Amino acid sequence: MRHFLTGSELTSSELAALLERATELKEAPESSQVLAGKSVALIFERPSTRTRVSFEVGVAELGGHPVVLRSDEMQLSRGESPRDTALVLSRHVDAIAIRTGPDELVEQLAQYATVPVINMLTAGHHPTQALADLQTLNENFGHLNGLTLTYVGDGNNVARSLAILGRTAGVSVRIASPEGYELEPVAGAQLTNDPREAARDADALYADVWVSMNDDPHTAEQRRRALEPYRLDEQLLELAAPHAFALHCLPAHPGEEISEGLLYGERQRIWDQAENRRHAQKALLELLIG
Ligand code: CP
Ligand code: NVA
Questions:
Q1: Ligand 2 midpoint to CA 33 (Å)
Q2: Domain, as residue range, for 99
Q3: How are beta strands 172-176 and 245-248 bridged, if at all?
Q4: pLDDT in the model for residue 71
């Protein structure tokens, strides 16, 4: 029984196999019924468009039953402990996936659950996003080892998961953030304050929102001012390799962290990336509970 909380649970060979499987599932989405007769709880304590739909449809495509739970409808919101929630859900479902704020809550669920627990985004990590991002690189380049992926912006959950899973996949991850918004050192990731230096000759450039859902909304204006020089736009992409393209986990704010031209233009794989959430997560579900 294995959990997927940060992505560091996977070995390089497991990750490579998962990404290959994701590509097979993309080509034949109805080909696996590995979750027939099984159920997966999908708990949302924060808003979601892509994660919600890609997990719910993905579980159904695998023949399973997704049980979507909003936390305000659960006793968790009235003080029932993560421990008791984990113990009870484990009697009914075959995996528990959760989107929330505190990483500690997911760790507590994992400690007491007797079924796999999957992190669908916390303040600290967004590992299922990174799986889809790596699948998108893999399907474009035919390999991952030796690629350079540059993330520009806040040193947040998405940046951290790219650093962790990128290293496992053999991708060089560079992260350019303003002072005060840097990621802590993560093994293998190159951190800088200079977005132009980080973009140079990269194979893909990556943006995320400047204000995350677990950030204090009172700091939003301050964050936007600090992150203004870190916009992913045509000028920055010019510094990258000629074949490079833009990535963004979405939701996007065109004109803020990414230019509208890049978001809807030819030199992006952002909408493929959003689709790949479903395929990569199905491969993960096969690995954990198949
Ligand atoms: N990228 C992502 O996780 O999107 P949602 O917040 O819409 O799920
Ligand atoms: N960093 C963003 C990612 C959204 C998918 C957030 O946590 O809100």
A1: 31
A2: 12-126+277-289
A3: unpaired
A4: 86
